[in-house]
């Protein structure tokens, strides 16, 4: 009996076996026996919660958790947090990592409770919490042991809040302040004065000046600095970095500088010289981005190919003068190339793609968006890169079913496929994709006008699909959508904008089957009052909804639908006139729950 | 007006004299009101006429007219005899008290004490007035140009007050005098004023002679004929041990009466005026309070140590300098609407949790996770739609469970009947898998 064999295994052996399993297998593992279940409970270190109701029980069940992800737990709010705090049985003292991204309903009170509760907290992610302001920052600063903090797009955070965090959590060694638009030089200066251990700093998109760079340059341990699109920083600022920052290894100064657009350099300092001198001095370069550098031509790229054979990632987006010759040279000498972005390189044709197919066997990511020269033959060559995981072919109007068929038949590892506005292919191509690329989880088919319900029937077979864009496909009807809904249970993102011919039967099916949907775009859909109410009430994980131009929905319909889901919505897009037609209580509740409404 | 007065060499007797003489004048005016009511008026008007007639001569306004007595040896004599008289009076009063041996009745006692006080005040003021009256005895001979010169010198001295000891005359006012609300008194009715200008305005009501331009003119500073004859006047603080007190080793005199008043209030008095905005800062001089209130609230950059800054960069510099100091976040920032609604939401959620949520969780884990909130909520679903959203019934309001209960049940039935789909568990596990 298998029972006896399994019982012969000691607990530590079971734990070791468990360690080799990947997440889906672990789900099955816990169902084997009580012993297995216990091992799972004890060994599990990370968890992602979808429903706040289960949070205390799960925390109790998994005592050794070190990482807690609450970013997709829409109902989480201050009170839920306080309840956990009051529940004595829950042990959170081992928790090191906490993801509160988009948890907009958690405010200062909840954050302070969490910070006090989880004494060992080291990593916190509060990105995209638009309500995260100074008060919340002050609450979070209670967690003195914090080492990593991600605050991307905390729009209300100002220098004062940053100062609170900086003073409270002086051990920080990684902080991201991307899109925290209120942060100024003063805040950055204080950060650099107080957190001397900082190793990684992201100040992208901030309105900081060279003064900040001067402060940053004084950080003794800084290794990674991201300064994407800081328009006020110029060469003078970068000179500070050249002189200071002894341990700086990586710097991303995308769109900061007129000459160098993007620069990922390993083991070298920033320099402002031309690509040739740069590449000849930095032979160990593994990642280089020169997107939007219109001056970069074949000469520069060939020099790069000659000098930097270790290149793994190359971004040539919008380098319009790069031709097949450059691509061939790069492909031939940089055999380790994993990521290549050629967006809007109009001169590239099948010849360049041929050498890519021949040499770049390790290529995982290829972006050919808006490359007019890509055709079916080019796709045939690309399909030889069998390790491709991410392929973007948006706006390549010259590809048809034939080219797609090659991709579908050979690139079985594909996880992401972007076919935005590839109007040339139809249901047959999609059938090949659905047969070959079973693990596909992101599929963009917007404005592929040839697709019909038959194609939707093929999409159904892609069970792992989580992100699907079907924008502007007029031929898909309710039947097609219900097929997709039944098949793709993991769907989290669905864009149905301008799918005008989908009737209520499709939405009903969606409401019933797609319980994992987090984001949905229903603009210009002919959804009815009842269907909308049903969708909004049944899709219990929906956080982000676009409901613009729904001609068949009345104000009452909106009111009912939004009341049904008001406690979990985080983002909502509505037509502006509804602001005055919806009840004020509803809008108040939405606001209090941290929902951000965009009035179109 | 001022320039004219300066040209004419007119002297501001009043300005320099009022501290000592005004009370005397005031008291005397009261005393003598019945005896010789026309005396001052006559004198003042005559001097005005004089002034008008002989434009080059010293113009003397009515107050100076009153004080003109002081230069006169006769007036001095008068003052002295007045004091003598008063001292006798005082003696009489004290004898009276002694004779009665403290067996005075209430009314009598009040009368006696009032008399005592008034006599003592009169004595002090009169005695004080003797001094300047010696000093200013020949001011009318002042040369027109020297006035300006003298003033300039004074201005210079103001910059760095570095007068050698002995080069100035020290005056020390008493506490009561300093703290008196009024410094200018009407010689006719006795009404007190803070500013001499106000007094001059008031005087107009007492007769046409006070309405002349000369009478209304601002008295210019007193000038001295040759500064060696005339000592600069400086003031001492009556508080013993104070650096501004004349007995202090490093005595630093105060320049004007106003300085004395402000100094005394600021350093030796309670700070009784509290800022109405911050309710923390206190002042003893009203002007200080007003200055502060102008800026109070603008110092919005507050450190955890309580220090406020008017500029953000100053605060951040301060924080960078000190360990453990953080910027304080003002309290009133919380939006009332958000607070109210969150409270409402919390009560709703709390309700949900205690009654429905927890029960449903147990049910859900036991039976079917999909149905977790719907069942119990529907069971006690007596709540009407309107009720659940009205702010009044916040305790019954149940945002979490209620709408779902209606929709879940009705629509699930609707779906199953409409599309004929068999209910399938939509992968609605509570935990999604992530890499460990």
From TrEMBL, chain A:
Residues 268-433, 436-542 form the F-box/LRR-repeat protein 15-like leucin rich repeat domain. It comes from Brassica napus. InterPro entries: FBXL15_LRR (IPR057207), Leu-rich_rpt_Cys-con_subtyp (IPR006553), LRR_dom_sf (IPR032675). This is F-box/LRR-repeat protein 15-like leucin rich repeat domain-containing protein. Gene3D superfamilies: Ribonuclease Inhibitor.
TrEMBL record, chain B:
Keywords: Metal-binding, Nucleus, Repeat, Transcription, Transcription regulation, Zinc, Zinc-finger. Pfam families: zf-C2H2_STOP2_3rd (PF23115), zf-C2H2_STOP2_C (PF23118). The keyword Ribosomal protein does not apply. Residues 184-211 form the C2H2-type domain. It comes from Brassica napus (Rape). SUPFAM superfamilies: beta-beta-alpha zinc fingers. The lineage of its organism: Eukaryota, Viridiplantae, Streptophyta, Embryophyta, Tracheophyta. It is found in: Nucleus. This is C2H2-type domain-containing protein. InterPro entries: STOP1/2 (IPR044300), zf-C2H2_STOP1/2_C (IPR058196), Znf-C2H2_STOP1/2_3rd (IPR059161), Znf_C2H2_sf (IPR036236), Znf_C2H2_type (IPR013087).
């Amino acid at each position: 009996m298998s029972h006896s064999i399994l019982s012969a295994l000691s607990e530590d052996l079971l734990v070791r076996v468990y360690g080799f399993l990947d997440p889906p297998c672990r789900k099955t593992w816990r169902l084997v026996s009580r012993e297995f279940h216990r091992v799972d409970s004890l060994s599990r270190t990370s968890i992602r919660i979808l429903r706040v109701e289960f949070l205390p029980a799960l925390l109790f069940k998994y005592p050794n958790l070190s990482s807690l992800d609450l970013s997709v737990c829409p109902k989480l709010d201050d009170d839920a947090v306080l309840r956990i705090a009051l529940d004595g049985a829950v042990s959170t003292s081992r928790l090191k990592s906490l993801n509160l991204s988009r948890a907009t309903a958690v405010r200062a009170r909840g954050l302070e409770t969490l910070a006090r509760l989880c004494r060992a907290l080291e990593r916190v992610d509060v990105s995209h919490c638009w309500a995260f302001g100074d008060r919340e920052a002050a609450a979070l600063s209670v967690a003195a042991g914090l080492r990593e903090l991600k605050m991307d797009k905390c729009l209300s955070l100002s220098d004062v809040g940053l100062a609170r965090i900086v003073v409270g959590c002086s051990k920080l060694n990684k902080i991201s302040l991307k899109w925290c638009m209120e942060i100024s030089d003063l805040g950055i200066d204080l950060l650099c004065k107080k957190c001397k251990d900082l190793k990684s700093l992201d100040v992208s998109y901030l309105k900081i000046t060279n003064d900040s760079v001067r402060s940053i340059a004084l950080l003794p341990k800084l290794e990674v600095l991201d300064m994407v699109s800081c328009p006020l920083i110029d060469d003078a600022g970068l000179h500070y970095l050249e002189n200071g920052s002894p341990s700086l290894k990586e710097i991303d100064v995308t769109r900061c500088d007129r000459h160098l657009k993007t620069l990922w350099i390993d083991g070298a300092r920033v320099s402002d010289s031309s690509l040739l001198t740069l590449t000849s001095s930095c032979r160990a370069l593994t990642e280089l981005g020169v997107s939007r550098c219109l001056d970069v031509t074949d000469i520069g790229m060939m020099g790069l190919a000659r000098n930097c054979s270790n290149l793994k990632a190359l971004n040539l987006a919008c380098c319009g003068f790069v031709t097949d010759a450059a691509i061939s040279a790069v492909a031939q000498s940089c055999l380790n190339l994993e990521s290549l972005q050629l967006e809007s390189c109009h001169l590239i044709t099948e010849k360049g793609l041929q050498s890519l197919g021949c040499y770049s066997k390790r290529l995982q990511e290829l972006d050919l968006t808006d490359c007019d020269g890509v055709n079916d033959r080019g796709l045939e060559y690309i399909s030889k890169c069998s390790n491709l995981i991410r392929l973007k072919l948006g706006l390549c109007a010259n590809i048809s079913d034939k080219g797609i068929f090659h991709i579908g038949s050979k690139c079985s590892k594909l996880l992401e496929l972007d076919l935005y506005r590839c109007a040339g292919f139809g249901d047959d191509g999609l059938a090949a994709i659905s047969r070959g690329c079973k693990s596909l989880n992101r599929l963009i088919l917007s404005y592929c006008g040839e697709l019909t319900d038959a194609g939707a029937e093929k999409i159904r077979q892609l069970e792992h699909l989580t992100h699907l864009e079907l924008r502007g496909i007029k031929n898909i009807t309710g039947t097609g959508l219900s097929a997709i809904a039944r098949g793709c249970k993991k769907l989290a993102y669905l864009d149905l904008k301008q799918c005008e011919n989908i009737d209520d039967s499709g939405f009903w099916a969606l409401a019933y089957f797609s319980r994992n949907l987090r984001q949905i775009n229903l603009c210009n859909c002919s959804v009815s009052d009842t269907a909308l109410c049903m969708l909004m009430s049944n899709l219990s994980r929906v956080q982000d909804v676009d409901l613009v131009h729904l001609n068949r929905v009345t104000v009452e319909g909106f009111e009912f639908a939004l009341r049904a889901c008001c406690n979990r919505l985080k983002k909502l897009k509505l037509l502006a006139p509804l602001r005055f037609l919806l009840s004020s209580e509803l809008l108040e509740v939405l606001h209090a729950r941290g929902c951000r409404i965009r009035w179109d | 007006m001022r320039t004219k007065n300066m040209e004419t060499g007119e002297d501001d007797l009043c300005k320099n004299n009022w501290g000592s003489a005004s009370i005397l004048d005031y008291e005397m005016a009261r005393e003598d009101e019945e005896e010789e009511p026309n005396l001052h008026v006559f004198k003042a008007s005559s001097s005005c006429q004089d002034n008008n007639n002989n434009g080059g001569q010293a113009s003397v306004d009515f107050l100076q007219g009153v004080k003109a007595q002081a230069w006169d040896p006769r007036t001095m004599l008068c003052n002295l005899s007045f004091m003598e008289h008063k001292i006798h009076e005082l003696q009489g009063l004290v004898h009276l008290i002694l004779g009665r041996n403290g067996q005075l009745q209430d009314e009598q006692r009040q009368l006696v004490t009032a008399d005592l006080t008034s006599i003592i005040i009169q004595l002090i003021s009169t005695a004080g007035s003797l001094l300047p009256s010696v000093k200013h005895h020949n001011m009318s001979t002042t040369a027109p140009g020297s006035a300006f010169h003298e003033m300039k010198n004074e201005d210079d001295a103001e910059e760095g007050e570095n007068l050698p000891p002995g080069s100035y005359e020290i005056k020390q006012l008493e506490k009561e005098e300093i703290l008196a609300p009024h410094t200018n008194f009407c010689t006719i009715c006795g009404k007190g004023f803070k500013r001499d200008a106000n007094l001059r305005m008031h005087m107009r009501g007492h007769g046409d002679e006070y309405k002349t331009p000369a009478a209304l003119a601002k008295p210019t500073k007193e000038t001295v004929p040759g500064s060696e004859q005339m000592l600069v006047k400086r003031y001492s603080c009556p508080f013993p041990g104070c650096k501004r007190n004349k007995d202090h080793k490093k005595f630093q005199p105060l320049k004007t009466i106003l300085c004395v008043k402000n100094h005394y209030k600021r350093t030796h008095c309670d700070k009784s005026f509290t800022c109405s905005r911050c309710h923390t800062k206190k002042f003893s001089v009203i002007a200080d309070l007003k200055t502060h209130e102008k800026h109070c609230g603008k110092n919005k950059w507050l450190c955890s140590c309580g220090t406020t800054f008017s500029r953000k960069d100053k605060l951040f510099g301060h924080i960078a300098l000190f360990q453990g100091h953080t910027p304080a976040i003002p309290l009133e920032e919380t939006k009332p609407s958000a607070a109210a609604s969150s409270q409402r939401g919390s009560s709703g959620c709390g309700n949900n949790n205690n009654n429905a949520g927890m029960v449903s969780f147990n049910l859900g884990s036991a039976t079917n996770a999909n149905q977790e909130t719907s069942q119990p909520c529907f069971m006690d679903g007596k709540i009407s739609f309107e009720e659940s959203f009205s702010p009044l019934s916040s305790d019954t309001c149940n945002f979490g469970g209620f709408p779902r209960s209606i929709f879940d049940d009705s629509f699930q039935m609707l779906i199953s009947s409409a599309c004929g789909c068999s209910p399938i568990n939509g992968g609605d596990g509570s935990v999604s898998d992530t890499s460990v």
